[in-house]
Amino acid sequence: MLEHGGNLAAAAKQYDIPLENWLDLSTGINPDGYPIAEIPTAIWQKLPLEDDGLIEAACAYYGCATSPSSALPTAGSQAALQILPQLRTDSKVAMPKFMYQEHANAWQANGHEVIKFDFFPDENILQQADVLLLCNPNNPTATKFSVPELLSWHASLAVRGGWLVVDEAFMDVTPEHSIAKYAHLEGLFVLRSLGKFFGLAGARVGFILAEEHMLKQMQEAIGPWSITGPSRLIAKQALLDKAWQEKMRVQLAENSQKLATLLTKYHLRPMSGTALFQFVPTKNAQALQQHLAQQGIWVRLFSETPGLSARAALRFGLPPEDGWARLEAAVKLWQN
């Protein structure tokens, strides 16, 4: 079982602090998520409708509106990344050493060979790989890959039947850098979800964006009703709410800079970050995580950081409005 952010129950037990007293910064989920409207009772009594406009809303939001069949709803991007390895025979799958490890786990569990590189794939890696898998921006290092780079790598793979798989879980604040509008290209797969930016991780809604033939194969593998009716309703509302999206993009970018400034003030300068988290390599990562946990603040510890000089790192998510002072007090105490 891989470790994830959000494993708060274990922390509460270890530090003997009730769950409700924690400030959880471990997940990179928007603490000011999309407001959920009242859900009609009738939705709970019916099977989910496949023609409810959710796919059209997703295509419009992600920019893949060439066809309503350009997006396949899944139970979060986790479900999507577990399906893809089932659709290829034994392959060599290249990915960064330091990224969301569920990807490597899924491909290896299905008999594929995973080969790893530091940050960017070189020509040797591209020639070896049947599949190139990237998180853009990367989680947790926030490494970014440009659209021209991605399209070039895709073209190199596609001529020999290879795939490029791009997980864009943290892309929503910078949609101009998304490769989603090219997802109709053969051999390109883009994974999106509503968990991070929209703060709807519990709804378990995500999408695979790809060309129609492959989406049909994935739909057959997933089966019907992969997303509940209430989750589909909430997701559609969120995807169509442009005013909320525009406001939140500004808010998250400002708060991420605020977090970077706060950490730097106390000699914890981030190496990198996205609008939803800051990544801080430090030799004292484990001790600092323990110190913060004793204050009821939970951050994600990476005890191994392949490719980085620091042996460990912490990822800080954004605090809610009432959590900033508490975080600053805790890191100030650490420095003293």
Describe this structure in words.
The chain has 336 residues and is of the alpha/beta class. It has 2 domains: 8-33 and 243-335, Aspartate Aminotransferase, domain 1 (Alpha-Beta Complex); 41-240, Aspartate Aminotransferase, domain 2. Helix content is 36%, strand content 16%. The protein is built from 11 helices and 13 strands. The strands form 3 sheets. The chain has a 7-stranded mixed β-sheet, sandwiched between helices. The protein has a 4-stranded antiparallel β-sheet with strand order 9-10-13-12, with helices on one face. It has a two-stranded parallel ribbon with strand order 1-11. Helix 6 links the parallel strand 5 and strand 6 (163-167). Helix 3 (76-83) packs parallel to helix 4 (102-109). The chain is globular, with a radius of gyration of 20 Å. The model has no long low-confidence stretch (mean pLDDT 93).
Question: Which key features would you list for this structure?
Answer:
Aspartate Aminotransferase, domain 1; about 325 residues; 2 domains; seven-stranded mixed sheet; 13 strands; four-stranded antiparallel sheet; Aspartate Aminotransferase, domain 2; alpha/beta; globular
